[in-house]
Amino acid sequence: MTKRTLTGRPMLVGAAVLTALALAACGTTEAPADSAEPDAAAEAVTVTDARGVEVEIPAGVEDVVALEWVAVEHLQTVGIAPVGVADVAGYQEWAATGAPLEGEPTDVGTRVEPSIDAIAGLAPDLIVAVAGRDAGAYGDLEAIAPVLVLQGADAADPLGTMEADLRLVAEATGSSDAAEAAISEYEAHVAELSATVEEAGLAGTSIAHMDGYENGGQVEIRPYADGALLPAAFESIGFANGWPGEGDEQYGLGITDVEGLTALADDTHIVYLSVGSQRDVFQDQLADNDIWNGLPTVQAGKVHRLPDGIWLFGGVDSLTAYLDALVASLAPTP
């Protein structure tokens, strides 16, 4: 799916160690094609965000600050390039392949601790955040501009939550037509990929997506369980989630070690991403690990590293890039 021209790692999980891992993977290019500038929201609106708070959005929203990378992507999807982004360098490393950063936004600190001074200096019309911060953290931000909090993820309905967040951003910025066009385009592409998977004889293929980290010299694995966004996406095109364990209630993420991977069925494909600054623990640290090398999946060569820079907690563009890369890896064209 081509980049549209449209007109018009999580902060709260079930346990402290999950939070640390999520933030690591949600880590810290080439310029995208020119996009038409959207019209500023013509009318003031009041929307209810993920906190259940009614947020009054003024008319004429143009300058927006995004404190999470999925918020950056949703804004760009509806035609708004944020003037401020938390951890710009991190976004360019972790997310820019799937959803290249538009414009030249000001870096406003980290996603965990954004700079109030930097945000205030931009005098934004709107600040977009994601659920997971302590409720008290919004006070200083709300003194600068209205704060719209997205749900970010919900293991009860990961794809529906992603689309609902995109629609909320669009409602707040007067860009609902752009959001609906993006969702329709994504759904049409899913249908195309489903046909490709079926024709390749890969329907029902078991896939386990996971991230790997080094922590104190030990390898820790974060598998994406049922309820995570990625399995929901690849199941929608005909694959099956091969990870049997459970994940947290928001992001559907689990934790295991190398021994835990023996729970995988023999025919499961392991899929993962890394980035240039991160050590590829699957290729490097596990190269001489007897348990890893003894896995039928590893012995059969069913371990796939996908291209860097696809954000695994993103929106329609990131999911499109991920699914395209997944299908290309499992069903390469002659």
Automatic annotation (TrEMBL):
InterPro entries: ABC_transptr_periplasmic_BD, Bact_iron-sidero_bind. It comes from Agrococcus baldri. Belongs to the bacterial solute-binding protein 8 family. Coiled coil: none annotated. Pfam families: Peripla_BP_2. Residues 1-24 form the signal peptide. Gene3D superfamilies: Nitrogenase molybdenum iron protein domain. It comes from the Bacteria. GO terms for biological process: iron coordination entity transport. This is Iron complex transport system substrate-binding protein. Keywords: Signal, Transport. Its main location: other. GO terms for cellular component: outer membrane-bounded periplasmic space. It is found in: Cell envelope. Residues 63-334 form the Fe/B12 periplasmic-binding domain.
